[in-house]
Amino acid sequence: METNCIKSSILIVDDEPYNLKILNELLRTDYSIRVATNGERALEIVMSDNPPDLVLLDVIMPGIDGYEVCQRLKADTNTHDIPVIFITSKTDERDEIRGFETGAVDYVTKPFRPIVVQARVRTHIDLKRKSKLLENQSLRDGLTGVSNRRRFNEYIEIAWNCACRDSSPLSIIIIDIDHFKLYNDTYGHQEGDSCLITVANTLESLIRRKIDLLARYGGEEFCCILPKTESDGACNVALQFQNKIIDLKIPHIASSTHSCVSISQGVATVVPSQDSSPEELIKMADEALYKAKNSGRNRFCTY
Ligand SMILES: [Mg+2]
Q1: What residue ranges define each of the domains in the chain, with the CATH number in brackets?
Q2: With pLDDT > 90 as the criterion, what percentage of the chain qualifies?
Q3: End-to-end CA, the chain
Q4: What is the Cα–Cα distance from 143 to 138, expressed in whole angstroms?
Q5: What is the distance in A from the centroid of ligand 1 to the CA of 277?
């Protein structure tokens, strides 16, 4: 099923079964609905592996009230993006202020008009979808579609800290297309762009684990982050990259290395510690890349 065919999901939280029934009837044709009659159950559902896209939240409930549910969702990085709309009979301005202060995006008072609830839910579902799309786009390289430098910087920090915590090896590979400037000069920039796209997609197709990341690092340079990977494992990946790019047989008549487009790679591995930094690992891989370039290209070297 296409992603855009899947209905957005809404969690309705209210201790009054009658309210749940009305809201469910109002929204169920356009959304997939789950319900909870108390704050504890609401938190369970939102914190689960399958959280809703939006929460319609009653304020007054026995046990954990709506304000607290909202506060807890907003305090947790896994759930703080989920929009919360309060739907309540509390009409005092101070109550509304409190609702917004806890992080709600909207506030609907009971008795509600169906069209108002429908319109506000639709607005916030759309907003969330768009901001998610934007966030996703801001981390992708515009030309090749693989992760961009920004995402690389973000992820190397995450991988570094994880590796520090569990003393596991972290490897990176810097990949550079051989004689790429000559390629552009010979075939033109459009062909150059299409070469970059093909190489990027080919490299990414060889990434099998979810924790690995391939990013466009700059011009014709890519970088691959391989957490929990020893040097041998990283060399294995580099070898696959090298062979697969040659297998593409993209003609490169100006190259003194090979008749087709080839890559040079630098591989570096460390078990990170607090007194070193990701920059050092990148520098090591850069030096190894330099070595690969100086010893004939179309190969990888380790630091
Ligand atoms: Mg209530």
Answers
A1: 3-137 (3.40.50.2300), 149-302 (3.30.70.270)
A2: 87
A3: 46
A4: 12
A5: 52
Give the distance (Å) from ligand 1 centre to CA of residue 11: 15
Q: Write phi, then psi, for 85 (nearest 5 degrees).
A: -115, 120
Q: Provide the percentage of residues in the chain whose pLDDT is more than 70.
A: 98
CB atoms under 10 Å from CB of 40, counted, come to 12
Going from the Cα of 71 to the center of ligand 1, the distance in angstroms, rounded, reads 17
Taking the C-alpha atoms of residue 66 and residue 16, their distance in angstroms, rounded to an integer, is: 13
Ligand 1 centroid to Cα of residue 105, in Å, is 19
Q: Which residue has the tokens 């356009």?
A: 30
CA distance 177 to 103: 48
Measured torsion, CA atoms of residues 277, 280, 285, 287, in degrees rounded to the nearest 10: 180
Q: In what order do the strands lie in the sheet with 54-57?
A: 32-36, 9-13, 54-57, 84-88, 106-109
Average pLDDT over residues 229-234: 97
Peptide bond into 111 cis (omega under 30): yes
